[in-house]
Amino acid sequence: MPLMHLPSRNLTTNYALHGSGAETVVLVNGLADDLSSWSLQLPALLAAGFRVLRFDNRGVGLSDQPAGPYTAEVLADDAKALVGALGLERFHLVGVSMGGMIAQSYALAYPADVLSLVLACTYASPGPFCSRMFALWADMARSTGLEFVRRDTDLWCFTQRFYREREAELVQMEAAAQGAVQSVEAYLAQLAVIQTFDSRQRLGELGGEGKRVLVLVGEEDILIPVALSRDLWKGIEGAEWKAVKGGHAFAWEEADAFNEAVVGFLRKRD
How far out from the chain centre does Cα 243 lie? Predict the structure, then answer.
């Protein structure tokens, strides 16, 4: 996959641009996930006639991993530099988890770029429960390394049904995670994004006349509790709400339901 040097950001970014549709969907990954995390969405989006951009955020995969901490605004500005270099002017923006925070920041900073906005399994602010969890992950990363953090995170990401019925997939996923390209320092730099993010005072700017927003959740999400996503939805005037089967990682665990919800929303016209 190609690398793009972005001089304005002093950053080299790994990306992949697929298809030739008239409209583009820009996908924004979650914490510690590289662009391969969208592998189950790519076929559905291409089949629906969209061009699709995936990329590694700074701090993960083959993109540069400069010193942190990072913020959602910093990563949104990285994305802006990338889409500008690729000549993309108007597009649908889809973010999951941390990617949903980056997508909010992007839409707030560059509203004219955004045809529609999908915010999946994400929040406007972490609150005390998530904040304590993230502080624990930071301590674990520093003391034991990322392997134990990933093992703990997976327990929060997937449903009990997944562990009970799809162990072979779990083993494959765990094996793939061993090859993840991310240092402890870069993980902590990304973790700071979700620890410090707070868009509550600006949610009104994301909604209103002419703006299309979907807040999408896995109804069994325990990592980012559904109540936090509901608070996000309530703060965005005119936003749509949809809950489908699955937990925090429902884009993987229940990919068909996730894809149906996203494609259905993107195809909808007012």
Answer: 17
CB proximity list for 181: less than 8 A, separation 6 or greater = 34, 60, 61, 62
Q: What is the residue type of 186?
A: A
Alpha-carbon distance of 113 to 123, in angstroms, equals: 22
93 with 122: CB under 8 angstroms?
Answer: no
CB 247 within 8 A of CB 236: no
Q: What is the pLDDT of residues 176-229, one digit of tens each?
A: 666 667 999 999 999 999 999 999 999 999 999 999 999 999 999 999 999 999
Does residue 60 contact residue 68 with C-beta atoms inside 8 Å?
A: no
Quote helix, strand, coil % in the chain, to nearest 5.
50, 15, 35
Beta pairing partners, 16:
54
Q: Which strands sit side by side in the sheet containing 114-120, from one edge to the other?
A: 3-6, 11-18, 51-55, 24-28, 91-96, 114-120, 213-218, 240-244
What is the pTM (predicted TM-score) of this model? 0.97
The model's pLDDT over 119-165, given as tens digits with 9 standing for 90+, comes to 999 999 999 999 999 999 999 999 999 989 998 999 999 999 999 99
Neighbours of 256 (CB within 10 A): 11
* DSSP type of residue 56: P
110 φ, ψ to 5°?
A: -135, 60
Any alpha helices (H) in the chain, and if so which ranges?
42-47, 72-85, 98-109, 127-144, 146-157, 160-165, 167-177, 184-196, 226-234, 250-253, 255-267
